[in-house]
Known about the structure:
Layout: E1 3-5, E2 8-10, H1 32-54, E3 59-60, E4 65-66, H2 103-111, H3 114-124, H4 154-174, E5 177-179, E6 186-188, E7 190-191, H5 192-209, H6 212-219, H7 229-242, H8 245-267, E8 275-277
Antiparallel strand pairs: 1-2, 3-4, 5-6, 7-8
Helix pairs in contact: 1-3, 1-8, 2-4, 4-5, 5-8, 6-7
Amino acid sequence: MTTTHDSGTYRPPAPGRPDIRQRTLRKDRWWLPPLVNALGLATFVVYATIRSFWGSAYYVAEYHYLSPFYSPCLSESCVPGASHFGQLLPPFPVWIPLAIIGLPFLLGFRVTCYYYRKSYYRAFWASPPACAVAEPHSTYSGETRFPLILQNAHRYFFYVAFLISVINTYDMVLAFQSTDPVTEVTSFGIGLGTLILLVNVIGLWLYTLSCHSCRHITGGRLKHFSKHPVRYRIWTTLSKLNTRHMQFAWLTIGTLILTDFYIMLVASGTISDLRIVN
Length: 278
């Protein structure tokens, strides 16, 4: 039996549960974290989508700067020099973005990430919107049905994300070179873009290695840590990183946008790269 009162429809509590008719007894701004999460995640999704279809200003040939959104660039449609691993694929039609090689897997890795699940479950689905706040849904099936059952693919996205992190690291190493546009002689060099790429790669590795799946792969199935001291040491280190997985998740959203935006400005000629060495 349900009744209606000032705060809406009231359902009697389950046996053994307190009879609390308010949506929440919290007096703080519990709605603020879900709102901030929604704005942050929406900003990243919108920016990444726009840039993936942009199709230009993603590579600076003189300094070997390649946007992480377009790495690896394997199509014959890629600008000269951007294909660090060769042009293995034919030209793409205009409606297929060059970023389709790696970006969907990176987004899949983040969408299924345990921390991001918590963020957008609360921010967009209000399931629940915050701790000790009643959710508006009358039923709950967890991640046992389609489409949420696909969240179990997270461990497989991890393998691809790990490989892409290796590729991004290689891109960053190449950014420590500069090529004279006249003589085409390549030499060691460091610019502001190099440092931005370096910071982004460090952040990506911290986020990737602090992933719950990575921690589970290294030591989740061990029954006797004493028999596997090396794996136990790795598992212990990753467990420490895992405690900061949330911070690394937001850090890398910021560094990915910053890195791509800076490379876009330099590649389009809007600004010049600040050179530190050469």
